[in-house]
C-alpha cells in the first residue's frame, strides 16, 4: 500500500496531520501540544520558543467503535491468556463500557491464565471472589482450582471448594488432581476415618500422568511403603528417580548458567539428592501462605498447623492431620512429597533427633 503522509505544522499551538491512503481516504488529526515536541520532526529552532504547549488530540472519527466485536474479543482473549498479573486485565474493564461488557464475556474469561487469576490474599474482597466465580463458571480450570483451594482451606467452605477442585480435576488440571489426592490421603475436611488411600493413589497416578512432579514423587513413596497400593519397592524407586530427573530437567530450562557449574563441579553429575532451586509455587499455594501468615491462629484454628514446606501453605483441617518428622518431631507435612522436598531444600541441615535423656 502506497501511503502518503504529510504534516502541516502551524505554531499557533496546533498541528494538523493528513494521511492519504491508497483508497484516497483522508482523515485529520488536530493536536495541540502540551509538553515537549511531538514525535514528528519539528523545527528545533522554532520549538524552543514554545513554553509548555498544550496537547489535545481530536479525532474526527472514532475508529475503535467501528471495529467489529469479533476483533475486539480476539484481542481481549489474547490479553486474558497472557496477562502477567490481575491488574493487567482488570484495568481495561474500567476504560469504557464496551470493553467492560466484552471483557467479561465468557469466551474471554474462559481463556484467563494462571497469572491473571493470581489474586493476592491481602487484596481479597467480595468483588475478587465474584470475579473468580465468574471465571470458574465459564469452565476455566485454573479459576476452578484457585477458587476451590481458597474456599476449601481459607473460607472453610469444604463442599463447594472440593467440588470446584473436582471440576478442575475432570479437566485434567494437574495441581487440582494432586491437591484432591492429598485431601483423600489425609481425610481433610472430615475425620481420620474419611481417609481414602486408594482414591488418593488413583488421583496421584492421574496427576503424575499429566506431568505433576510432586504427584510422581508421592506415588513413588506410596509404592515403596505399600501405602494405598500394593508394595513394590523397585517400581517406587523408579518413580522417585523419574521425579528427580523431571525436576532437574525443569530446572535446566529456567536456571542461570552459573547454577549448573556451581561449587563442587557440574551439578548434573551429582547424585539425585542435589539441591535444585525450588519451583515457583502455584498462585493458589501463594494465596494460602499469605492468608495464613496474616491471620495465624484466627483462621487455622487452635492446635492446627501449617505444612512446614514453605511454598505449600496448606493448613490442617483437624488436629494431628499432618505427618510429623519422625526424627525431630518439630515439623509436619501435608504429604510425603512436601516432606521429601523440604528435606532436600532445608530440613536436612536442621533436623536433630530429640534427646529424650535431656528431659529427665
Ligand atoms: Zn504441603
Ligand atoms: Zn526433622
UniProtKB/TrEMBL annotation:
Pfam families noted in UniProt: TPR_27 (PF23310), zf-MYND (PF01753)
Keyword set, alphabetical order: Metal-binding, Zinc, Zinc-finger
MYND-type domain ranges (all copies): 309-351
Gene Ontology molecular function: zinc ion binding
Top-level taxon of origin: Eukaryota
Keyword Aminoacyl-tRNA synthetase tagged: no
Keyword Zinc-finger among record annotations: yes
PANTHER family: MYND DOMAIN-CONTAINING, OJ1485_B09.11 PROTEIN
Protein name: MYND-type domain-containing protein
Amino acid at each position: 500500500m502506497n501511503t502518503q503522509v504529510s504534516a502541516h505544522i502551524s505554531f499557533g499551538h496546533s498541528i494538523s496531520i493528513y494521511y492519504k491512503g491508497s483508497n484516497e481516504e483522508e482523515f485529520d488529526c488536530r493536536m495541540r501540544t502540551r509538553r515537549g515536541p511531538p514525535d514528528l520532526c519539528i523545527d528545533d529552532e522554532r520549538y524552543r520558543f514554545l513554553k509548555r504547549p498544550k496537547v489535545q488530540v481530536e479525532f474526527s472519527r472514532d475508529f475503535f467503535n467501528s471495529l467489529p466485536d469479533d476483533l475486539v474479543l480476539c484481542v481481549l482473549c489474547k490479553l486474558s491468556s497472557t496477562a502477567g498479573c490481575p491488574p493487567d486485565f482488570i484495568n481495561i474493564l474500567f476504560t469504557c463500557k464496551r470493553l467492560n461488557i466484552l471483557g467479561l464475556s465468557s469466551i474471554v474469561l474462559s481463556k484467563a491464565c494462571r497469572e491473571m487469576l493470581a489474586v493476592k490474599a491481602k487484596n481479597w474482597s467480595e468483588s475478587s471472589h465474584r470475579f473468580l466465580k465468574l471465571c470458574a463458571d465459564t469452565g476455566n480450570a485454573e479459576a476452578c482450582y484457585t477458587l476451590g483451594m481458597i474456599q476449601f482451606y481459607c473460607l472453610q467452605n469444604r463442599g463447594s471448594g472440593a467440588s470446584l477442585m473436582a471440576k478442575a480435576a475432570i479437566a485434567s488440571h494437574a495441581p487440582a488432581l494432586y491437591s484432591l489426592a492429598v485431601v483423600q490421603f489425609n481425610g481433610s475436611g472430615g475425620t481420620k476415618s474419611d481417609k481414602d488411600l486408594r482414591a488418593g493413589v488413583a488421583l496421584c497416578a492421574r496427576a503424575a500422568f499429566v506431568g505433576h512432579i510432586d504427584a510422581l514423587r508421592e506415588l513413588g513413596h506410596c509404592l515403596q511403603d505399600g501405602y494405598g497400593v500394593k508394595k513394590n519397592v523397585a517400581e517406587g524407586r523408579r518413580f522417585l528417580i523419574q521425579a528427580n530427573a523431571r525436576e532437574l530437567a525443569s530446572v535446566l530450562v529456567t536456571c542461570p548458567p552459573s547454577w549448573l557449574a556451581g561449587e563442587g563441579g557440574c551439578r548434573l553429575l551429582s547424585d539425585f539428592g542435589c539441591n535444585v532451586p525450588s519451583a515457583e509455587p502455584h498462585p493458589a499455594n501463594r494465596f494460602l501462605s499469605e492468608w495464613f501468615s496474616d491471620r495465624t491462629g484466627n483462621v487455622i484454628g487452635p492446635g492446627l498447623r501449617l505444612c512446614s514446606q514453605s511454598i505449600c501453605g496448606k493448613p490442617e483441617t483437624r488436629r494431628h492431620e499432618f505427618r510429623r518428622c519422625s526424627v525431630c518431631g518439630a515439623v509436619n507435612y501435608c504429604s510425603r512429597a512436601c516432606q521429601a522436598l523440604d528435606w532436600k531444600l532445608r530440613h536436612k541441615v536442621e533436623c536433630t533427633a530429640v534427646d529424650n535423656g535431656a528431659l529427665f
